[in-house]
Amino acid sequence: MGFWNNKTILITGASSGIGEAFAKQLAAAGAKIVLCSRNKEKLQAIKQSLPNPNNHRVVALDVSDAVGLQTVIDSNQQILESVDVLINNAGVSQRAFTWDATPESERQIMETNFFGAIALTRAVLPSMIKRNSGQFINMSSPAGKFGFPMRSSYSASKHALHGYFDTLRAELHDKQIKILLACPGRVNTNMSKNAMTGDGSKHGEHDIRLANGLSSEECARIILKAAAKGKAELYMGKEQILIYLKRYLPSLFRAVVSKFDPK
Questions:
Q1: Where are the domains of the chain?
Q2: Containing H/E element for 59?
């Protein structure tokens, strides 16, 4: 049987893009999916489109709402205790110069990209430790490895994910619990349209560079293949060149990144 067969997998941000692609590929591989996002109607439609829809569940939640998320966690303990794999996929990008970003927009980005993921991680981790098995797949970004213009809080949130999960991996060194930090580059999704501007409103414009990137389906396929192999970190796309440039030639990296069109 396949690696994912009969595993219970919770996916945040499952109503579109890479999250939806994860759900479809994993369900086809025999997994039982817990579909999570704010859009319950879209989740229900996706659930019905999956093989064996009765094997899957829908849990409406907003990872950026700490109080509401905790209420959902408290009322779904049985589901959370059964989770074999948590895919922290929900996220929001940014299109604002640092001096234009309001504190409220910065907090919203951190709640969505970091604190929401951490709350769900803490919710499923005790049962994984008890069973001595489990896996976390965390959607990071090349911006989690370096700073980039108009992405200050977004980059900070992804850096925070790396710090948190690198630490957790070290703490779980004697457990059969795997952690993958996936850093895809450009993927053809609505991330640019949904990105936050300085005042917290949506950017509303589709980045042509994303349109020419990987499809959501191909991105999900590559990440799931890496997760099945137990990889700890995955870099994808041309942007990974900048990761190595920053590591080995930091002065050149700073010169290059400062000339990028940030929009």
A1: 8-257
A2: strand 57-60
Asked if 140 and 161 count as a contact pair (C-beta separation under 8 A), the reply is yes
Q: Of 154, 235, 244, 248, which residue is the catalytic one? A: 154
d(CA 66, CA 84): 23
In whole angstroms, give the CA distance from residue 126 to residue 106: 30
Distance CA 212, CA 216 (A): 12
Q: Does the structure show a pLDDT above 60 at 1?
A: no
User: What band does 190 get if pLDDT is binned at 50, 70 and 90?
Assistant: confident
Q: What is the number of other CB atoms lying within 10 angstroms of the CB of residue 167?
A: 10
Give the pLDDT score at 262: 67
Helices and strands counted in the chain (H then E):
12, 7
Q: Hey, what are 139's tokens?
A: 């959607």
Give, as one character, the DSSP assignment of residue 202. Answer: B
Residue 76 has pLDDT above 70, yes or no: yes
CATH level 3 topology of 8-257: Rossmann fold (3.40.50)
Per-residue pLDDT reduced to its tens digit, 234-261 = 999 888 899 999 999 999 999 998 887 7
Task: Return d(Cα 154, Cα 110) in angstroms, integer.
Answer: 8
Residues 237/214, Cβ–Cβ less than 8 Å: yes
Is residue 154 annotated as part of the catalytic site, yes or no?
Answer: yes
